[in-house]
Structure formats: structure tokens, C-alpha cells
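Q: How would the C-alpha cells look for this protein?
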Amino acid sequence: MSRKLFVNLPVKELDRSVQFFTALGFSFNAHFTDETATCMIVSESSFVMLLTEEKFRQFTPKQLCDTTRATEVLVCLSAESRAEVDQLVAKAVAAGGSLYKEPIDFGFMYGHSFQDPDGHQWEVMFMEPEAIPQ
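A: Here is the predicted structure in C-alpha cell form.
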């Protein structure tokens, strides 16, 4: 069975988040979008549900993470090249995100990171194809 992945993230301003991720090249599923939530399409089997904080609270009894003080999750996206890693991070910064650490280079693997406007941390990673076990 092939599984789908749905990452759920609380956001303060849904429209701002949609504009930010649209600037990074992502699209959204209109069937799962309203004034409280949207479904960002990452791939055929991976999605990010951006939920207003009020909507997100319906799914958990716990307090929401203050992303200015703590890390709730690291979301990692793959890239097809080192250049694509840097391009996506640059787009994120230009769209209102911010850097939160320096790039990492392990030779066979290269990554860089950004925070979205809500402080969620996103990693963008490229791994040399020959380094991936078959």
C-alpha cells in the first residue's frame, strides 16, 4: 500500500501563508480549501495542511508551539540539485521568510534552511543520486 503524508501546520494568517508558498512555486487543492484551511500540494502523495490556529486547535488538546521560542517540527523537502536548494531558500527569503541557520555540506548531501512567516522550519536537501542506497 502506498501511503500519503499530510503534515498539519497552524498559521496565524492563512492568506499570507498561501501567498508565501505560492511564491515558492507550490499549488493548492481547491477542494480542501476554505477560509480556515488549505491543502498545499507537495507531490502526488505529500501534502501540507495549513490551518488557522483556531482550526488547528480543533485537532489537539495541547497548546500550540510558540515558534519564536521552540521548534515544533522540521519539515524537509528534497531538491533535484544544489542550485535548486539555494534557489528555493532564496525565494523563501524574498517572499517574507527568513534564514535560521547556515547551509550544510556533507559532500554527498547539501542542505539549507528557512523559516516561513509563522516560524515553521523548512529544510531543503539535495543528495547525490549515487549516494542513495538502491
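The first strand starts at residue 5 and ends at 11.

The longest helix spans residues 82-94.

Upvote if useful.
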